[in-house]
Prior knowledge:
Bound molecules: iron/sulfur cluster
CATH superfamily of the largest domain: NADH:ubiquinone oxidoreductase-like, 20kDa subunit
Low-confidence stretches: 1-24
Largest sheet: 5 strands, parallel
CATH architecture of the largest domain: 3-Layer(aba) Sandwich
Strand order of the largest sheet: 4-3-5-8-9
Number of helices: 15
Shape: elongated
Structural class: alpha/beta
Helix content: 25-40%
Order of helices and strands: EHEEHHEHEHEEHEHHEHHHHHHH
Strand content: 5-15%
Number of strands: 9
Mean pLDDT: 90
Amino acid sequence: MEAVDISVMRDPVVQTREADERVPAVKAKPTRLLPGSIEVVHAFWLAGMSCDGCSVSAVGATQPAVEDLMNGTIPGVPRVDLHHPVLAVEAGEAFVQPFHDAVEGTLGAPYVAIFEGSIADESLAAAYGGYWSGLGARKVDGESQPIPTAEWLQKMADGAAAVIAMGTCATWGGVPAAIGNPTNSMSVMDFLGKDYRSALGLPVINIPGCAPQGDNFTETVAAILLFLQGIGPLPEFDELGRPAWLFDETVHRKCTRAGYYEEGVFADEFGGKECLVEIGCWGPVVQCNITKRGAINHVGGCMNVGAACIGCTMPAFPDGFSPFYTRPPGTLVSSTASRGYGAVIRNLRKITQIYQNRERRWLEEDYVPSGWGHVRQPNLAEKTAHFFYDKLQHMGTVRPTPIQKKPGGTVRRHE
Length: 415
Ligand code: SF4
Ligand code: SF4
């Protein structure tokens, strides 16, 4: 089989991206590879100022699972050799050596660098002879000193097929970079700078969330690996490097409580089923897909389980959404308006619902034979409203003609 220039396959996609102003001008670098010829891709997991929640999320992913990626069971996606400081079987030098190989260009296979947590200013810690976040060690003046993960990222970034920032601390600085920020923490994008491009020609890829959904991560990794393999297109990223297909909608639009918002029904305390906007939900402005996708295996996810959105996927988190669990100022306009028109819409819908809860026979006989309870008959106002609604509904259509009843036709058990 002849070698194919996969840059030719990528170009139309890249041009489409450039035409779309939401996406930065990303030029994939020409690479001569046989499509499908990559057997293994190394994934180096580095952790900075992190709580390890992103790692926990990643291993909870199911579509695809980390195991699927590591076993190479997804058609077309090369097998992933994961080097994770907590999950690895190897320890000590055996664990660290592949990191050195990647830096020195002797790995013999492509790799991606994944960073979890924000990047603290190591010079601040070094001034006191310490460090913030390290992996492996080296001898300095005869003493073993940890190697900062920031240094690893600095050295590995240029050779990586892609650098993926995992979780809000890595994507936007997150909690460690909140107001005050004694460690001068920053995001991977801030650390590597605007002009950074990976070996594939990609800026930093950002999977935000505190913690992010594991499936958002594994799905993006699989899409990037398909691109690297020369089989799939360059996935679509927005102007902040988020996978556009995952973060282009507000969480509110897919929220299971959005119907309550529309009808102007709001909770005034946690524990109910109504919309939570007046007790601190920022969902209408937050780009997140958790109500649609669920937290793990399509189960859970903030508002699905009663929690208000505090904007953890957004660059302004946490300062821009604090104080948490208080009414966002925008609701003074939006939910007040919704209360007004929602009350009207809600009551009109109730009238329609009365009629849609009746069989044709019950309408004709003006009677509901339910043994479960008294079913209220529509009052005069409701009948009048329905009369006009019914006319509107069937305007321009031919209605079926009722069949003439024959004497003695229907026999009921109680008659
Ligand atoms: S709970 Fe939040 S996301 Fe859900 S409908 Fe209300 S405002 Fe929107
Ligand atoms: S719904 Fe809000 S708080 Fe929950 S994960 Fe999404 S952005 Fe974070």
